[in-house]
Design goal:
With about 90 residues, this protein is an alpha+beta fold. The chain is built from three helices and two strands. It has one domain.
Length: about 90
């Protein structure tokens, strides 16, 4: 089972951050999330733009949640958007 630092709840919404990031940082580890995708079908409900699974949603918003929770870096298929989030 994969442990996520910001878990998805039953209705595909983001929950509260878990202690995973804090615990990893305490032992000197960096944490990187992968792979953030732009399409609605890969986003939690909170960040979808419509019911169209292939439409672009708010991937930047999802990444911000993880960065605010303490994630150190991330991988994405849309590096231009990722750069805007960290720029």
């Amino acid at each position: 089972m994969e442990e996520r630092d910001v878990p998805e709840e039953a209705h595909n919404t983001l929950g509260q951050p878990t202690p995973v990031l804090r615990d990893a940082h305490r032992v000197g580890l960096d944490v990187h999330g992968w792979t953030f995708r732009l399409e609605n079908q890969f986003l939690p409900v909170d960040f979808r733009s419509s019911a169209d699974p292939n439409a672009a949603g708010d991937m930047a918003g999802e990444i911000r949640v993880f960065l605010n929770a303490g994630m150190d870096g991330f991988f994405t298929d849309q590096p231009d958007i990722g750069a805007q989030v960290t720029g």
